[in-house]
Amino acid sequence: MNDVLPATEASRLTYFAFAASAAPPVPRPPPKPLGALPELLTGRYHIERLLGVGGMGAVYRARDLLREQFGDPEPWVALKTLSADCADYPDAHALLYSEFALTARLSHRHVVRLFGFEVDSASQRAFITLELLKGPTLDQLLDERPGGLPWTELRDIAVPLLEAVTYSHSLGVLHGDLKPGNVLLAADGLRLFDFGLGQAVDGRLPGLPRLCRERIAAWTPRYAAAELLDGAPLSAAADVYALGCLLFELCSGHHPFGHLDARQARQQALDRQLQRPAKLPAHCWPALRTALTLDPAQRRVSSAELLAVFRRPNQNRLWRRLGFTDR
Fold first, then answer.
1. What residues bind ATP, as annotated (predicted)?
2. Residue 142 domain boundaries
């Protein structure tokens, strides 16, 4: 996605592994091993260079030769295919298609735009083509701003991000891996991307394959809710917890629970000890603190409610402009 491959600390990376304790899959003929990714896919997409590697997929910059043939001055796309560790797994192509099907149903200015899902017949490589974006991801921004962002800058990022997640949830699409590395600040606005660990809520899009967390352990440790680490299914509340971690980190410069994951933080009841970051307006803190609750039954706030709070102006600043002291 991004033209610059970020150097990201391990705790921000998605952990993706096939569970050793999983029940064996239904016997089937072994798949033909996939070789190296060819430079040309489907006779149309010429791979130019690697942009980034995640837990499940690798993203490349590619030139669309058909667009180029018809004189498009910007024929480049991003091309996502399975990483080498996952490509030979029997269900991996179905999961890649599920990511495409989920994201393709979203039409929002702050959600990455997908073009198509294809399979190269010669190499048997499945891939997604999507818009090529330039700009820093939020983890790169955090590396450059270790003290966090002031309210005006935070709000300019938080509002479009919360709009994207609220829109996705309204259509029954859960992201499953909300973290700074999956949010990019493009020249024309923020983009949320990588729904590879996402799924539809129960009863929506029932035909799509789902990531089975009993067979596949997939999460980003610092942003996964405790219930996910306990083996519970993905939920909107789990997305809200990840949003809470991300927003807290943006305004303070550090993760709310340091390098601990949510289960470790729960053992020490650290969510009860959280203090409002100095740069966060007081009116935002009750909702954000609720989003960071480690008990999902007590995490009674939605992304839409967070959005409403972060859209409000800083009341303290307004009072200071009028000559009153903070209340």
1. 80
2. 138-311
